[in-house]
Amino acid sequence: MDGVFTSGKVKTAVAVRLVTVTVRLDTIAVRLETVVECVFGFKRSCNEKKSWPELVGTNGESAKATIERENRNVKAVVLLDGSPATMDFRSNRVQVWVDGNGLVVRAPTIG
């Protein structure tokens, strides 16, 4: 039975598509959960700072400390610009992207 549905390429393509759909549904679920938590007041961080554009050009480790001090409900993670990173949305994470000199290259934002 070497039909279309048993070929390795088709199985791989279907598996990749299912993973992509699952990741997108997880992202939507997390965003919806965050909205519901904020609307009904279950979450304290809804009124807290969510973006730090003023940190662009500053030291990444200092930026991380500032973010975690200004919003105690998030954990900041310093990442080298261009390196692979997870793309799922997390309301308790801030990715701080830095260049080779350790300087922040874009505004850190919750997500």
UniProtKB/TrEMBL annotation:
UniProt superkingdom: Eukaryota
Assigned keywords, A-Z: Protease inhibitor, Serine protease inhibitor
The UniProt record lists the keyword Nucleotide-binding: no
Keyword Transmembrane helix: no
Pfam families found in the cross-reference section: potato_inhibit
GO MF annotation list: serine-type endopeptidase inhibitor activity
GO BP terms in the entry: response to wounding
The family this protein is said to belong to: Belongs to the protease inhibitor I13 (potato type I serine protease inhibitor) family.
Protein's name in the database: Uncharacterized protein
Source organism of this protein record: Gossypium stocksii
Source organism phylogeny: Eukaryota, Viridiplantae, Streptophyta, Embryophyta, Tracheophyta
